[in-house]
Write a structure and sequence with these properties.
Elements (H helix, E strand, L loop, with lengths): L2 H12 L2 E3 L11 E3 L1 H20 L4 E4 L4 E2 L1 H7 L1 H4 L1 E6 L6 E3 H6 L20 E4 L2 E5 L7 E5 L4 H5 L2 H7 L6 E10 L14 E11 L3 H21 L7 E5 L11 E9 L2 E10 L3 H10 L5 E3 L4 E3 L2 E8 H12 E5 L5 E5 L10 E5 L5 H15 L4 E3 L5 H11 L3 E5 L1 H4 L7 E6 L5 E5 H12 L1
Parallel strand pairs: 3-10, 20-21, 20-22
Antiparallel strand pairs: 1-2, 4-9, 5-6, 5-7, 8-9, 10-11, 11-17, 12-13, 13-14, 14-17, 15-16, 18-19, 22-23, 23-24
Helix pairs in contact: 2-10, 3-9
Bound molecules: adenosine-5'-triphosphate.
Length: 445
């Protein structure tokens, strides 16, 4: 099994990610996050928000609607240019994204159908926007779209943000939310889904090429450093510059942060210089004045925009891959462990009574569990032997396990303590119950 298959299996087995609508045979390109997955994703988003909004004075947050006026998508160019080249096999009628077929290493060009070897049609542009209809009168419903990117919700609110906050250029707006794309070939587990989440920053700067490129370089570094600060291995990360002919319709410059997975470099986040495309187009299409007034310089202008656009699901998948290890232990066994950064780990600690049929042990363990739960996500397990419980928590990425035994019931100084076991080193330490909360909080920060 390769790492992708192993992660897919572990995700299902342990409750990180399930196939969407599975009992009805599934729905291609949709996924449901289980009890562990929802915590991992929530932690990722919280870390993004903390670094982008909470810890900064130049960035504010926003949560715009998923469904917007169809005029937004006309203005942004999505209705004409948000497309991928589609080819169809003349024999089996399977459809593929032409650019991914051609760029596969070692594949002859022009390629044949990867499924049956049949001849492929010439590529035609296929629009990725997902259509939906609003209204109550049949025949008069408004055709609109589920947003293909979360970006436009920010730009249409540019003036609202200026008038309701004290921000001054340069400033940014961060947003996290769902986006939808009718992908031609969803796949690679959650890597390419039809419904997914994005975490973005739109940073408004003066329309000066030199100055804006400085900001572009700054945000490239910041975003790469963020992934590394959450434990992603530097060797698995790189920047990839978009060639001029690969640039999106709005972009002046673009770099991707790529992650090395399954023998290939794959896009995880894009850093784009959008010029003044979005504000200019919305000004043109809406008739609203989108200019910014620089009170000091007494000048009015349409700002340039630097964007950082990451996929929450892709990042979660790559963090899982990066953390996954099958480790040979001293006793010759193999343990599967997720070395997730404590900030990302779904559960921070697991609490076990040594024996489930000893009420005194269970009572003390339950009290510890209830106390810790006020501050962090805590797992409880009283089934099977302790070794098996450790292995189960290793697979879930839980950094610490706490076991309550008979010594825990004795009074200090001899007793009143528990065993704390470290996921990564497997070392065990005795810690007094009274000091446990502070001990764990210090380790987990
Ligand atoms: P790709 O070339 O892989 O289709 P893109 O360049 O179209 O991606 P962007 O429009 O720049 O992607 O979107 C920003 C981020 O959103 C991507 O880096 C990725 O992390 C995430 N993303 C985009 N499309 C998908 C998808 N179909 N499923 C999951 N995440 C996605």
């Amino acid at each position: 099994m390769d790492i992708g298959e192993k992660i897919t299996a572990l995700a299902k087995r342990r409750g990180f990610v399930y196939p969407g609508s599975e009992i009805y045979g599934g729905l291609a390109g949709t996924w449901d996050y289980g009890p562990l997955g929802v915590e991992l994703k929530r932690n990722l988003k919280n870390e993004f928000w903390k670094s982008m909004v909470q810890e900064r004075s130049d960035i504010v947050g926003l949560d715009a609607a998923i469904i917007m006026s169809p005029k937004v998508w006309e203005a942004s160019g999505h209705l004409t240019s948000f497309s991928d080249p589609l080819v169809e096999c003349k024999k089996c009628h399977h459809r593929f994204r032409a650019d991914t077929l051609i760029s596969k290493p070692g594949t002859p060009n022009p390629v044949a159908c990867p499924d049956c070897g049949g001849e492929l049609t010439a590529p035609k542009q296929f629009n990725l926007m997902v259509e939906t209809y609003l209204g109550v009168i049949e025949g008069e419903k408004l055709k609109t779209y589920l947003r293909g990117e979360i970006t436009q919700g920010v730009h249409v609110n540019f003036k609202n943000i200026l008038s309701s906050t004290r921000v001054k250029i340069p400033f940014g707006v961060a947003q996290i939310g769902k986006a939808f794309r009718n992908e031609i070939t969803p796949g690679g587990f959650t890597f390419r889904s039809r419904e997914f989440e994005q975490m973005e920053l739109q940073y408004y700067v003066k329309p000066d090429m030199k100055e804006s490129m400085k900001q572009f370089e700054y945000w490239k570094k910041e975003r790469m450093a963020w992934y590394v600060s959450l434990g992603m291995k530097k060797g698995n990360l790189r920047f990839k510059e978009h060639a001029k002919d690969e640039l999106a319709h709005y972009a002046k410059a673009a770099f991707d942060i790529e992650y090395y997975a399954e023998g290939e470099w794959k896009e995880m986040e894009g850093i784009h210089h959008r010029g003044d495309w979005d504000v200019r187009r919305h000004q043109e299409f809406s008739g609203e004045d989108m200019t910014y007034l620089d009170e000091e310089a007494k000048e009015k202008f349409l700002p340039f925009i630097i964007e950082t656009s990451g996929g929450v699901d892709r990042a979660a998948l790559f963090f899982l891959m990066d953390a996954y290890e099958e480790e040979k232990t001293k006793d010759g066994e193999t343990r599967t462990v997720l070395h997730l950064h404590p900030k990302l780990a779904p559960y921070k600690v697991a609490v076990f009574p040594l024996l489930a049929n000893k009420p005194k042990l269970v009572d003390v363990a339950r009290k510890i569990y209830d106390d810790l739960k006020k501050d962090m996500m805590v797992a409880w397990d009283d089934r099977g032997n302790i070794g098996k419980r450790y292995r189960a928590q290793d697979e879930a990425g839980t950094p610490y396990c706490v076991t309550v035994d008979f010594d825990s019931l004795e009074s200090p100084p001899a007793g009143g303590d528990v065993t704390v076991r470290d996921r990564d080193t497997m070392k065990q330490e005795r810690v007094k119950i009274k000091a446990l909360g502070d001990y764990l909080k210090e380790k987990l920060i």
